[in-house]
Specification:
The protein is mostly beta strands. The protein contains two helices and 14 strands; from the N terminus they run H-H-E-E-E-E-E-E-E-E-E-E-E-E-E-E. A hairpin with a 3-residue loop joins strand 12 and strand 13.
């Protein structure tokens, strides 16, 4: 698959080029296996087709509150679902750090084309750091193309084709499957051309309390969460660069 190649300069695994994305404590706690789940506001980052799984407004924010030396982005976003359409805006901004890597703006659109099939896409822009004006878009655009299918009432499958900034064509394909049985959710992702593997599970101890565990390409993760109709609070910990990194995220639903 010659069109799925990582140029030499991208092997540094810049934040946007790397997978997993480490967005959303629920996803992190499940080992970053989230392509076929993507049922909250973070879907705009993971699989924009998943945005149509909910109606109304969702506002999301995340903070990495321990071990910010290696990675310090604090993603946030807002999604709006109306009937068969959904829209999303989000960005990744490194707050309170001197990291010089670019921030990112996301603009996503999703549409349910069939009762069991949704498609979506994102346009992503780099944002210059340390400037005194707001960057509504940015520079060096790239994109994601996505699909989400409900194969059975308890099985979903998703795929995302990812274009990297400054490149043409598709540099990465990520596919995933999610299996829901009562209060147990299992998900599995893999990506090309790197052939990385991500898997995880979520278990609802009671309807509002969840525990999670996963493996993100040989790095173990775990997490927990509290969820009500209008709010979800999630925590995750993952092994990263020989240290444990801790995340917390909040989603408000209107």
């Amino acid at each position: 698959m010659s069109f799925l190649t990582i140029p030499e300069e991208n092997k540094k695994a810049l934040f946007e080029d790397a997978h997993p994305l480490l967005v959303g404590s629920r996803a992190v706690g499940m080992g970053n296996a989230y392509t076929a789940v993507s049922d909250d506001a973070t879907a705009g980052f993971w699989n924009p087709a998943g945005l149509v799984q909910s109606q109304g407004v969702k506002i999301f924010g995340m903070n990495k509150f321990h071990n910010r030396n290696h990675y310090a982005f604090d993603p946030k976003g807002i999604s709006y679902g109306y009937r068969s359409f959904a829209f999303f805006w989000g960005n990744k901004i490194a707050l309170g750090t001197n990291i010089t890597n670019a921030d990112y703006n996301y603009y996503s659109l999703a549409h349910r084309i069939h009762s069991h099939i949704a498609v979506g896409g994102s346009i992503k822009f780099k944002r210059k750091r340390f400037v005194n004006f707001y960057q509504f878009f940015g520079y060096d655009p790239s994109y994601d193309l996505a699909i989400l299918m409900k194969v059975k009432p308890w099985i979903k499958a998703g795929m995302v084709a990812q274009n990297f900034p400054g490149k043409s064509g598709i540099q990465m394909l990520t596919g995933g499957i999610a299996y829901q049985y009562n209060n147990f959710l299992f998900s599995l992702d893999t990506s090309l051309p790197k052939k990385n593997l991500y898997f995880g599970f979520e278990w609802a101890l009671i309807p509002s309390v969840h525990v999670r565990m996963g493996n993100s390409n040989q790095k173990w993760a775990f997490g927990t969460g509290y969820e009500r109709k209008q709010i979800a609070i999630n925590y995750a910990c993952i092994s990263e660069e020989r240290k444990k990194s801790h995340f917390i995220s909040v989603e408000i639903r209107i």
